[in-house]
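Re: the 97-residue chain
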Amino acid sequence: MIRETNLAEGARYLRIEGSVYIGIGILFLWYGYYRGVGRPHISLILTVISLGTRVALSYALAPNTPLGVMAIWISIPVGWILADAAGFVIYGKNNRR
């Protein structure tokens, strides 16, 4: 049996993730771009940034702030956005003229 609190938490998760889901889409574009240009190690770096940020923020914020589990939901898009920014910065550094 599904409890209303579980449904409410799931809905909150979907609102947070869904509002910034374009972040993971852009990250997938960066992964494909760097693999396509023969630099798959950059894709790995972006993955580490994304996952590392999510894990670090979740562990730091969830038990130590009033956000609780919502800190985990928030850390996911933050990780995506930071990895997207890193992909953009790396692209800019490698394509100067």
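The helical segments are 4-19, 22-36, 40-61, 69-94.
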